[in-house]
Amino acid sequence: MLNVKKKDIESEIFTGSMADISFLLIIYFMVTSVFSATRGLDFQLPEDSTTTPEIKREDSIDVHVQQGGVVFVDGKEMALEQILPYIAEKLKQNPDKPVILRTDPEATYGDMIRVFDLLRQAPDKIGVEIKTISIPTQREIQNIWELFGVQ
């Protein structure tokens, strides 16, 4: 018998065209897949009107925190403990009346938070819930309150 040695053949997977195959698979799935288009939030804009709605000062409760922690509610200076009883009387007339908490730029953040926390505690302290507490930006304050003549 002949003694024939088999050459050891290394097993190897050719990966030279693996990049081409991956690229073609990416193209295939991009072309055949369906993309869902997110259209955004559904909301209805008001109809275009040339008349500006008349805003009355009585439609909201204005809480203005000034420098040094001084608080004015509807133009009257009040101590913190007087604010909730005053607001309770206003909310008995109209429970949906919003409270607008605006802060003087010179007032500290802590003073504004102290008043905000007080307003949030209204159900526990006076038994009346304030449904809307709005904190407008300085630009909104200038635009809205100029209509009222309040600076």
- Strand-pairing-aware structural class: alpha/beta
Q: What is the CATH topology assignment of the domain at 58-148?
A: Nucleotidyltransferase, domain 5
- Total strand segments: 5
| Mean pLDDT across every amino acid position | 79
Distance between the termini: 113 Å
- Largest sheet composition: 5 strands, mixed
Number of helices: 5
What is the strand arrangement across the widest sheet?
3-2-1-4-5
Q: What is the H/E string?
A: HEEEHEHHEH
CATH class of the domain at 58-148: Alpha Beta
CATH architecture of the domain at 58-148: 2-Layer Sandwich
Radius of gyration from CA coordinates: 34 Å
Which key terms come to mind for this protein?
151 residues; alpha/beta; Nucleotidyltransferase, domain 5; five-stranded mixed sheet; 5 helices; 12% strand
